[in-house]
Amino acid sequence: MRLGKWILLILAAAGMAERVTGEPPWKEGDPRVAAREKRDPGYYRVYEDKMMLLPLADRGINGEEVILNVPDTAIKRPLPEAEFGGGKVNKPNSGNAFSASFEFRETSGVDRVARIRTGIPVAAGVLYRLPGALRVTGPEGKEIPAQFSATGYWTDGSVKWVLVQFALPLKAKESKICRLEYLPGKPSAVSPGKLACSEDEHFIIVDTGKITARIDKRSFKLLSEVRDAKGRLLGAFDGVLLTAGSGGKFSTASLPPERIVREEEGPEVLTFKITGSYADENGEKLHRYTTRLRFFADSAVVQISHKHLNDWLVWEFSDLDSLTLDWLPGGKADAVHFSDGRQLRSLAAPASLAQWDENAGFVNGDRFGAPLDGAVKIGDMTIAVADFARRYPKALTFDGRKLTVALLPKQPSKEYGRELPGYLQFPFCEGKYRIKWGMAFTEELTLDFGGGSGIAAEATEPVIAVIDRDYLASTRAIPGVLPKNDHRFDRIEKRVGEALKRHLKRKRDQREFGFLNYGDWFGERGRNWGNNEYDLAHGLFSYFYRSGDRSAAVLARAAARHQADVDTIQAYADRYVIGANAEHAVGHTGMGYQWAAGPRATWSYPFYRYCFSAGNGHTWTAGMIDGWFFNGDPVVMDSVHLMGEHMLNFMLPDFKTLGGLERSAGWSVIALVSLYRATGDRAYLDGARIAVDVALKEQNFEKGGAWAHKLGRGHDGGNKDAFGNAPFLVGILLESLRQFEEESPSPEVRKSMASGANWLKMSYHPEMKEWPYTASWDGKKHYEKHYGWRLSGLCASGMLAGGDISGDPGIYQIGSQIVENMEKHGFRTSGKSFAQDIVFLDSLINVMSSRPSEPQGGK
After folding, report:
1. CB 61 within 8 A of CB 317
2. Sign of CA dihedral 435, 630, 127, 194
3. Angle at CA 519, nearest 5°, toward 518 and 523?
4. Hey, how many other C-beta atoms are within 10 angstroms of the C-beta on 626?
5. Helix (H/G/I), strand (E/B), else coil: 536
6. Which bin fits 397, alpha (ψ -120 to 50), beta or left (φ > 0)?
7. Per residue in 833-852, pLDDT tens?
8. Cα radius of gyration rounded to whole Å, the chain
9. Do the beta carbons of residue 218 and residue 212 sit within 8 Å?
10. Residue 132: per-residue pLDDT
11. Phi/psi at 500 (nearest 5 deg)?
12. Does the model's pTM come out above 0.70?
């Protein structure tokens, strides 16, 4: 046993804070980082003004240094999973018919049969069981075969969100309007297509009418055999192969899967969820996988989602050589065919298509001049890798016998990645892929054995439904969505759209792409990835439903998936932090700005419980839940449940004080209420109550009415005796209390909201039409030069809700000023600022739109 571990055990036995699992040293920084700072700068593979990265020879923290002191009894229940249900309550559906129109637009410029997968909300109390009398009709009014699943519920048990799936032929750039109809007493008259599944001792056999596929229960090769309707062999996969940095070979095919479940099963879609470990020929395991195989009725299309998780806890970093899967065609194949943007081109073996960054692709080693679409045709199959350029590096190679799909291709040299900016270099380590423990990433592939067109578009640009806004407003399922004839906030929505365009340009300029980066934004404190701080995904999804801007939905989906895979801790020796949302940091899960001993932060850093627990004030579930509702993404919802159980099992039992940071309760309450609203699971609402009670206990009605405390350095305005709050932190807490009180009415919470809102009114600067960064309990403002930070996006909605309770017309007037300010100045562009500005915009619109044109004090 290492000497370091003995020291840690002695400290733990003495009741002292653990070095790895406890609180970080606040003042002097982490000593292990300080020690590394003393090394020669040449020791590091990247050494910049604000960041440093360890060389290949240094794999970071040894797993023996992590103390395991969480009892099994801390886990209160089995981990919930994403559910595609038919209803929770045995109650008849209502007799209230409805019809919802939704528009589909082909945006990539190719003809295709689009696999529609979209969530549609339903008003409370209408549907309790599915499919009931639901149907989908096309533009001519003809019914289309469809599948319906319940993905969200109202608190009365009725269905809130329905996942609708069907096939829709579209010409290039064509738009079509379909309808979801509920006609009580008139069940669907359409005949389902063919989609059959059988099992024996060794195989699962799926027959779609176009193809028959086998899944081997003994050796998971993905699809161990695919045949056409006539029984002709089309080919087979040979498993996903993980080649370690040491050269060891670990495959999904080396062991039987640990679990196979039918996650979705209906007349049109069948999805298998398969979990297990990669292993070598001796059964030694390295890393885990979760693979989903999705089949469609009367279709030769198969969709594959493959999630890779680093659960190797021997060292902090795993170094990989490649991650690949081989397709062996059933017949003769002399070449592969790919699109150059105008026509198909053929490449004889040996052939290679590679994408080493988000810009130009390479064909047989030559620069292609444009990003590749990630699709090739080989024999009877076309395969496309989603986001081939955005999630670089990727490659497709053909040696005359097999097609190799490289989800992580072997790097061309030890210098690969060194030409990138430093903040993009963290996963590229001297010719290997470096992945930190607890991190995951998911890659998606679409296969077509029928020779159809548009597969690359289906993989990377799935058709997005824009739901009629009048219908959305009628359901009251999405806050902030108003009827189309309500134009009060049109100028604000225009400003959001303008900021989104600038933000997307910023992403391109900063090159925010790569298999661990796509969906997140960079630049927090000049060195950190933001980990979608302030829940940018939620702000974007809300804006999409209000505006129909599809570019917002595309980015929101990527943001939710990134947070679910990369920013959520998926594995660690100290189970306390599993499910926690890592705050902004180097390499997403490294050191944030607060903990550096010197000017440089590093990716190597322990998962301390303060930094990596939901009590850190950097925890969001709403945007990921929006992603689940948007298109039924189970990868996202599984991480949401992991985060929710982290809060119930570990964070909340230890949550005894706000610690001077009101958002520590605020964001946790919003996360838990969002989970309760999505699932109806009372445990999440009861958990939110624990954090709310802590906030109520610490509220100081004698000192301003908010949560006044001694302001620390950087918050005190240079006055060591300053006593007060940061308005934006109070605003976050008030918004969380507003959401909690909607679900669990409470006089104590209402009193708290009214009092906190009054302090925000006191600290508001009417001439600047903004709040300062901090203010004393009596309203004295600090750091007035920071008014340009425009923190009103975080302050306004909670304050206005408190003003509704007190009936203070002055608070409503502040709200009107804030709206005018937003219309005049618009919204900011950086990821953090953009999220600050729009995350509560749906709540602000809701509160403001429900008020009379002239406030009536006390009413």
Report:
1. no
2. negative
3. 90
4. 28
5. helix
6. beta
7. 999 999 999 999 999 998 75
8. 27
9. no
10. 84
11. -60, -40
12. yes
